[in-house]
Amino acid sequence: MPALASARYGKDNIRVYKVERDPKTDVQSVTEMTVCVLLEGDIETSYTVADNSVVVPTDTMKQTTYITAKQNPVNPPEVFASILASHFTSTYKHIHKATVKVIQHRWARLSVDGKPHPHSFYRDGSETRNAEAIATSNGSIAIRSSVVGLLVLKSTGSAFHGFIQDEFTILKPTDDRILSTEVDAGWSWKSMEGVESVKAVAAAGKFDTAWEKAREITLNTFATDSSPSVQNTMYKMCEAILGEEKDVEAVDYSLPNKHYFEIGEFLFVLPSTEVRNHCTNKIVLVDLSWHKGLKNTGKDVEVYAPQTDPNGLIQCKVTR
């Protein structure tokens, strides 16, 4: 007989923008977020017998998000996510778990004539500061903070060799390559007991400091590490973040390769039967030498072809 194994529901893509005004200085600060709320609990009958009496409408979740933003601080996002998630588990007794994900978009203050403008901003790239809070009915809150969408590139200082090579391999080992990725780095905090515990961590500046340190470690390690592989470099990043923040119990990274190939690299132009029979010998590179002997390979390469897909995807999680 069929049985509902798991269920949760909620409101996604709740757009929130908050302005905070300092009446003494006329300086305004802005925060823009995209919020997702997901609820779990004794809601099975809404699925199995169309019993809507256990359903908190998703529109209610949206309105609650707006009201919570009005009545509470939205920075750091870890605190706002915890307050909102805890509201649902404390208000609705049949809801046993609430997950709130906050994506904080970057608005940076404009400078005019070398001075910060009091109320003008620009979008500082696609990178976001994210926070996820999972509140349970027993009062505990699990928090994961993250840096997402941080696009980085180094034009040298990365190698990749010593990997498995067999009859399916055409990739050549290299001591020097372009390395680019879009960083998704997260760190999970030790479980906290209630919103007040979360606020205490925020008051000590730990959420903001950890975010700044994690971002700095990511950028510095990426730039300075003579990378033998993405795997090894990301592990070093995890180690360093764990060493900086004692209240963090795990760090995870997801790094997609953004490939930049030499012109003509991996271009198959021969019939598939020939490629199958002698794959490594039947690849033709169409470089730029066809144009007046122009050299753009090996040590002479300067012009590359950026690739969108397919791409490598490397992930890891490191704990204490």
What keywords describe this structure?
320 residues; alpha+beta; nine-stranded antiparallel sheet; 7 helices
Q: Could you characterize what this model shows?
A:
The protein is an alpha+beta fold. Helices cover about 25% and strands about 40% of the residues. The strands form two sheets. Strands 1, 2, 3, 4, 5, 6, 7, 8 and 11 form a nine-stranded antiparallel beta sheet that branches. The chain has a two-stranded antiparallel sheet with strand order 9-10. A hairpin with a 3-residue loop joins strand 4 (about 115-135) and strand 5. Helix 5 runs antiparallel to helix 6. The longest helix has 19 residues, at about 205-225. The radius of gyration is 25 Å and the shape is globular. The model is unreliable at about 280-285 (pLDDT under 50).
Written as H for each helix and E for each strand, in order along the chain, the element string is: EEHHHEEEEEHHHEEHEE
In DSSP terms (H or I, runs of 4 or more residues), the helix count works out at 7
**Which whole number gives the mean pLDDT?**
93
Query: What low-confidence regions span 5 or more consecutive residues with pLDDT below 50?
Result: 278-284
